[in-house]
């Protein structure tokens, strides 16, 4: 397919030139060669286009705003609203916001909305909204209902959080002989990371249980998340351009039949 001589090296060079979009100027003479080169050019066009689009998609990084980690970050944003979960806003949490002397906490409480977690996450998904809830609870909800198989989620859970209830602890009678030993044991468990490990393990098990229940009852998955998953963009992969290989095989088959026909008619 490389010229009048039809040498193998010329054919390989012509095919390589077509792949890098720099084919030689001399076309093939035979009909079978022209047929093969034509289908090969079509194959190279599809493959090169798919490769460029996939490369651009991988190299293009979408701009992302910095996540909100503290109340200061939230108050620094303009036209921003926030709310808390209705089961959280009671008792000690209310006293925390009402009796706190810090200006940041008071400003947060002045326009704090109280609503359910589904409504809160819906507003967060719409943008311009922060939802305050128990970290373990909301982490389980986000991981089980709003996270795909690759671990991607439209929500960000603050890593710092807010210590609203600092008075939780163990109570012993005054002068208990086992108190120093018990305190030492708790300190060692905390330093070894057993508490955080146990907490993460409990959250992971709960997420697994909810996911298994959701698989048996697909109706439990929120509708807005289903639509978001369906509209998710995908980068072109080999499975998306497999039609180009079918075109290549078809072209090779047609060229082979044309070559056989030329050979037979030439002998006749």
From TrEMBL:
Transmembrane segments: 37-61, 243-261
Entry keyword set: Cell membrane, Glycoprotein, Membrane, Receptor, Transmembrane, Transmembrane helix
Molecular function, one GO term: ligand-gated monoatomic ion channel activity
The UniProt record lists the keyword Protein biosynthesis: no
Record's keyword annotation contains Glycosyltransferase: no
Intracellular or extracellular location(s): Cell membrane
Coarse class of the protein's main subcellular location: membrane
Membrane topology: Multi-pass membrane protein
Gene Ontology annotations for the cellular component aspect, listed alphabetically: plasma membrane
GO terms for biological process, alphabetical: detection of stimulus involved in sensory perception
Span of domain Ionotropic glutamate receptor C-terminal: 8-252
Family as reported in the entry's similarity comment: Belongs to the glutamate-gated ion channel (TC 1.A.10.1) family.
Protein known as: Variant Ionotropic Glutamate Receptor
Organism annotation: Coenobita clypeatus
